[in-house]
Structures are given as structure tokens and as C-alpha cells.
Amino acid sequence: MRPRVRPLPPDEWDDFTKANPYNVFATLARHPGLYRAWLRFGGALLDGALPARDRELAILRTAHHCHSAYEWAQHVRLARQAGLTDQEIDSVRRPDALWPVEDLLVLQVADDLHYAGDLTDATWAALCDRYDEPARIELVMLVAHYRMLALVLRTFRVQIEE
Q1: How would you write the pLDDT of the chain (162 residues) with one tens digit per residue?
Q2: What is the C-alpha end-to-end distance of the chain, expressed in Å?
Q3: Number of structural domains, the chain?
Q4: How many CA atoms lie within 13 A of 141 on its CB side?
Q5: Which Gene3D superfamilies match (predicted)?
Q6: Do residues 57 and 106 touch, judged by C-beta distance below 8 A?
Q7: pTM confidence score
Q8: Which end of the chain is flanked by fewer CB atoms within 10 Å, N or C?
């Protein structure tokens, strides 16, 4: 499929996009004000209170649920950098995979938000046992953000890089 919104050509990229030459950035840069605000928000989520492993598990599970090939491809790379193995990454797509309880909680948050748009009381209680309040807020906002981004990427037909 051809992109519905073409990425900016490289000669129009800002410094951030030049340093991060991905279609998601070059595409969203077509709306400069929204792009800059989104970069700040997305950056805060990527550099927040959650451990990188937890963050990437939540993003991959969300990408899987949302059928976002672009999001999946980008975050497989980041998940590896966060220490996830290829077997773990592949297991994110399987609901029957065996996970340590800590990872299972993160995946359950993504599942609850995907299927119900809310967390069960049991999932919330487990989150309260594991994370402080800022991290709980961040995890819910992270999943919601990547769900929104998956819709944007799919709608604009953002292409996966070669």
C-alpha cells in the first residue's frame, strides 16, 4: 500500500528527524506543531519511570493487539536493546506463553486495556503492589499512547523502513 501521507523529503527534515531517519517521524513532521508536541510526550514515555523491559513489553503487546506492523518492527529493535530475547519477543504474540509474574502483569495491563478499555480491580491491585503512582499512571498512558499511534500509523499507511 502506498502512504496516504508522504514522509517529508530528507532535505526538509529537522535535526531530530535527521538523527532518527524513520518514516514515522518524517511523516508526522508534516504537521510541525503537533509533531513537536508529540515528540515531547512520546519522549517522556520512552524515558520515564518504567524499566525499559516493561515499557517494551507493553508496547509490543499493544502493537500486536492493534495489528501495527510498523510499531512492532520498530519496537522489536528497542526490545532487544532493553534485554528481551528473540524467544520472548515472539512469545508476546502468544497468549499461552509462560512468563514470570512481573512480565505477566505488564502484558495483562495491555490486554485489559485492549479488551475492556479499563483495568480489572485485580490488575490494578497488582500494579499498586509493584509500581509507585507515577509508574502506574505512566504504564496506562503508555499503552493508550501506543494504541493511538498504531491507529495513526495504519491510517496514514506509514511504511516500514527497508
Answers
A1: 899 999 999 999 999 999 999 999 999 999 999 999 999 999 999 999 999 999 999 999 999 999 999 999 999 999 999 999 999 999 999 988 899 999 999 999 999 999 999 999 999 999 999 999 999 999 999 999 999 999 999 999 999 998
A2: 15
A3: 2
A4: 15
A5: AhpD-like (1.20.1290.10)
A6: yes
A7: 0.96
A8: C
Question: Distance between CA atoms of 69 and 39, rounded to whole angstroms?
Answer: 21
What is the per-residue pLDDT for 18?
Answer: 97
**Cα pseudo-dihedral 114, 117, 123, 126, rounded to 10:** 100
Mark whether 25 and 66 lie in a shared domain. Answer: no
Residue 38 and residue 58 in one domain:
no
Per-state percent for the chain, helix, strand, coil, to nearest 5? 70, 0, 30
Expressed as residue numbers, the domain containing 28 is 13-46
102 and 27, same domain (yes or no): no
- Quick check: is 7 in a domain? no
Residues 89 and 20 in one domain: no
- Contact between residue 22 and residue 161 where contact means Cβ atoms under 8 Å apart: yes
- As given in the structure block, the three cell numbers for residue 51 are 524499566
**DSSP letter at 39?**
H
Q: What gap in Å lies between CA 82 and CA 52, rounded to an integer?
A: 5
Residue 17 included in any domain: yes
